Automatic annotation (TrEMBL):
GO terms for molecular function: ATP binding; ATP hydrolysis activity. The keyword Transport applies. Belongs to the ABC transporter superfamily. Coiled coil: none annotated. GO terms for biological process: peptide transport; transmembrane transport. The keyword Nucleotide-binding applies. PANTHER family: D,D-DIPEPTIDE TRANSPORT ATP-BINDING PROTEIN DDPF-RELATED (PTHR43776:SF7), TRANSPORT ATP-BINDING PROTEIN (PTHR43776). Residues 5-249 form the ABC transporter domain. SUPFAM superfamilies: P-loop containing nucleoside triphosphate hydrolases. This is ATP-binding cassette domain-containing protein. Keywords: ATP-binding, Nucleotide-binding, Transport. CDD domains: ABC_NikE_OppD_transporters. It comes from Alteribacter keqinensis.
């Protein structure tokens, strides 16, 4: 498949008071292929949202590159920026906070169309109605306000808004984390259907592995601003290489009580260190049950340990 997005040695640092730098994203590299869903997983504060926001240019990269369809998104100018802004859209975590309570559903969904000055009057309304139906709502909803909807419905409105400009690539930042468990699968299934119909590519951000399992073709695992492991979903679940991924997976309960528990449980102790003062060497070493001497001395390389299975861990270096 074609590479739609190439992230190369991306860093995003924030200044947080006197001489202190928060390394939110610290030198990560990965590709997103056209038509796939890449899941991005990690505890809160690991840099996954910042990664998404830097890719879509809500933040400027501190260093490194984001190449979209062959072009560096951080050096685009003029008309190309407008074109790019249509191709890439975002769905946010909190459908309560991300929809303006004083705007009608119609105006919320059409906001991007208005900004880009496409579709007016009747055409605009028709398109909004069509988008509402596309996400499982109805055109009667167009004149209502966000507070009249449930969380799941609001996220559908957020999805309709993201689709309004016919994007190619959607960054969904924890789109189901704020929803009831019973609603989560519905939203994931809607997103899957839309992907099939429209050939969309997704970066799907979540804080735990069980949430991305059913939607992701591949999954990347982040910790403290770094990418720890990236592989096909099946490989990642069946043969996780990184001790952090192993720990995350062992904390997911086995849903079927008749299946015998054969996994070794790794319970993570301690807290995630501050990204302002991260450990030397491997960022995970202060909590890693398998840390060895070199882990404190040198940052592990990002290497392809198995075909299409990348990991940053000294245990896999030769
Ligand atoms: Fe653990 Fe060392 Fe691998 Fe880091 S590099 S995950 S500390 S074994
Ligand atoms: Mg976040």
């Amino acid at each position: 498949a074609k590479k739609l997005v190439e992230v190369k040695n991306l860093q995003k640092h924030f200044e947080v008071g006197k001489g202190k730098i928060l390394k939110a994203v610290n030198d990560i590299s990965f590709d997103v292929y056209e038509g796939e869903t890449l899941g991005l997983v990690g505890e809160s504060g690991c840099g996954k949202s910042t990664t998404g926001r830097t890719i879509i240019r809500l933040y400027r990269a501190t260093s490194g590159e984001v190449i979209y369809d062959g072009e560096n998104v951080h050096t685009l100018k003029g008309k190309k920026i407008k074109k790019f802004n249509r191709k890439m859209q975002m769905i946010f975590q909190d459908p309560y906070a991300s929809l303006n309570p004083r705007m009608t559903v119609e105006d919320i969904i059409a906001e991007g169309m208005d900004i880009h000055d496409i579709y007016q009057g009747k055409e605009r309304r028709k398109r909004v109605h069509h988008l509402l139906e596309t996400v499982g709502l109805s055109k009667e909803h167009a004149t209502r306000f966000p507070h009249e909807f449930s969380g799941g419905q609001r996220q559908r409105i957020g999805i309709a808004r993201a689709l309004a400009l016919d994007p190619e690539f959607i960054i969904a930042d924890e789109p189901i984390s704020a929803l009831d468990v019973s609603i989560q699968a519905q939203v994931v299934n809607l997103m899957k259907d839309l992907q099939k119909e429209r050939g969309l590519t997704y970066l799907f951000i979540a804080h735990d592995l069980s949430m991305v399992k059913h939607i992701s073709d591949r999954i990347g695992v982040m910790y403290l601003g770094g990418m720890m492991e990236l592989a096909d979903s099946e490989d990642l679940y069946e043969e996780p290489l990184h001790p952090y991924t192993q720990a995350l997976l062992s904390s997911i309960p086995i849903p079927d009580p008749d299946v015998e528990e054969t996994r070794e449980r790794t319970i993570l102790i301690g807290d995630v260190p501050s990204p302002i003062d991260p450990p030397s060497g491997c960022p995970f070493r202060t909590r890693c049950p398998e840390a060895i001497d070199v882990c404190a001395k040198r940052k592990p390389e990002w290497l392809e340990a198995r075909p299409n299975h990348f990991v940053a861990c000294h245990l896999y270096e030769q």
